[in-house]
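Bumping my old thread because nobody answered last time. Still need a sequence for this structure:
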């Protein structure tokens, strides 16, 4: 009996859709499409504000897996053994090993004549990198805003992060007072004095890097051979290694392979996301909740719209409904016909929205991130989350379509036919 009811209801629903006004049907589908776009895009943009920073942190600094020194250690012991192991682990696409030391950069030493005049200095983390492997991993040279990238055999050149320079600091000359010191009048070709552990050497500024990742924009960079020579490091143990996996799914396997090889006794091995501050992860959850809260208003509006449309449709067809009940068509079949009508609105509208989201919006924002002061925002729309929102929209629409049909159909059959 239920099978027959569903079949009749389906046929009635299809007939109603065919004979409905095309303008009305198009308008309702358009509203459903906007509702689903609002449901996905609002939370996706809000979460994308933070996810943009997380992605940049991984792309430009940590890679997919980040190996760093243990607390209380100056470097990663047995680094060469670890790097040799990396070459044998499947799923490793590239990696970059870096040396780091705390340093001081001084700018005005050539023009300072008064011994009482304050020295123009800034403290920074000096990094020794292999320019070739670093470029392969992070494409660091594309963040140069002035000058050129360092070469492996450079001995007198240095690359500075933009946040070390007054002209690029958001705080400008007030940076020193705010706890973000900079040096001034340093440009391409300027000479700066670098001091590390008592060793001092003059370098020429070859390039200036600017990114929204502080670990890059507040560092200074030397080629690794020059770094080892200048700092007098007597061993070749590095301080950090950033690893890029062949695919994101390979990252946990690479981490586990490193831990299985015993590297965990000499270094801290983490996925890029595991190194994020807790407050950043909390912000992602908060923005997701905020976006869902805002989007739920749109969901309520669409449900009310469907309710009104179905209610008006059923009211104007009350006599027709009464006749159908009079000739023996079950009330369940008539109610199901309106549910089919609602389902069509939801499925077609959501389908169009899905095409726009994954065919246009997500690729567009990945290629053209929104330029926020602290991140390059993207649209985050994971398929699993989107499917849950789709299910919520369809269910709410079906309920909004069923209730008015049930209200009209439960009326007395004779009253419906006579229009009373």
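Sorry it took so long. Here it is:
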């Amino acid at each position: 009996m239920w099978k027959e009811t569903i079949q009749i209801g389906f046929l009635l629903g299809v007939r109603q859709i065919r004979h409905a006004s095309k303008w009305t049907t198009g308008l309702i589908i358009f509203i459903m499409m906007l509702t689903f776009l609002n449901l996905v895009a609002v939370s996706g943009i809000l979460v994308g504000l933070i996810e943009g920073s997380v992605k940049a942190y991984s792309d430009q600094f940590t890679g997919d897996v980040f190996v760093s020194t243990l607390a209380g250690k100056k470097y990663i012991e047995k680094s060469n053994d670890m790097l040799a192991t990396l070459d044998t682990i499947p799923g490793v696409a590239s990696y970059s090993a870096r040396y780091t030391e705390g340093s001081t950069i001084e700018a005005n030493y050539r023009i300072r004549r008064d011994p009482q005049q304050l020295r123009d200095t800034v403290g920074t983390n000096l990094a020794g990198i292999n320019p070739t492997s670093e470029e392969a991993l992070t494409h660091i040279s594309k963040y140069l805003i002035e000058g050129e990238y360092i070469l492996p055999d450079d001995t007198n050149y240095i690359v500075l992060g933009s946040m070390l320079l007054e002209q690029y600091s958001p705080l400008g000359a007030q940076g020193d007072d705010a706890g973000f010191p900079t040096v001034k009048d340093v440009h391409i070709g300027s000479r700066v004095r670098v001091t590390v552990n008592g060793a001092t050497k003059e370098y020429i500024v070859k390039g200036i890097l600017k990114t929204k990742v502080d670990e890059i924009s507040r560092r200074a960079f030397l080629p690794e051979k020059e770094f080892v020579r200048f700092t007098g490091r007597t061993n070749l143990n590095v301080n950090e290694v950033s690893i890029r996996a062949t695919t994101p799914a390979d990252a946990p396997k690479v981490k586990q392979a490193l831990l299985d090889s015993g590297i965990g006794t000499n270094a801290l091995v983490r996925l890029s996301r595991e190194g994020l501050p807790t407050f950043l992860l909390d912000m992602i959850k908060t923005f997701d909740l905020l976006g869902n809260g805002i989007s739920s208003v749109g969901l309520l509006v669409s449900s009310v719209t469907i309710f009104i449309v179905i209610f008006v449709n059923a009211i104007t067809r009350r006599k027709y409904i009464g006749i159908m009940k009079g000739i023996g068509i079950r009330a369940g079949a008539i109610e199901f016909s309106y549910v089919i009508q609602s389902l069509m609105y939801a499925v077609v509208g959501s389908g169009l929205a899905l095409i726009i989201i994954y065919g246009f919006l997500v690729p567009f924002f990945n290629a053209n991130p929104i330029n926020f002061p602290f991140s390059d925002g993207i649209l985050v729309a994971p398929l699993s989350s989107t499917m849950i929102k789709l299910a919520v929209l369809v269910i709410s629409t079906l309920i909004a379509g069923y209730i008015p049909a049930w209200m009209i159909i439960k009326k007395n059959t004779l009253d419906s036919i006579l229009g009373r």
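Residues 22-62 form the longest helix (41 residues). Let me know if any region looks off to you.
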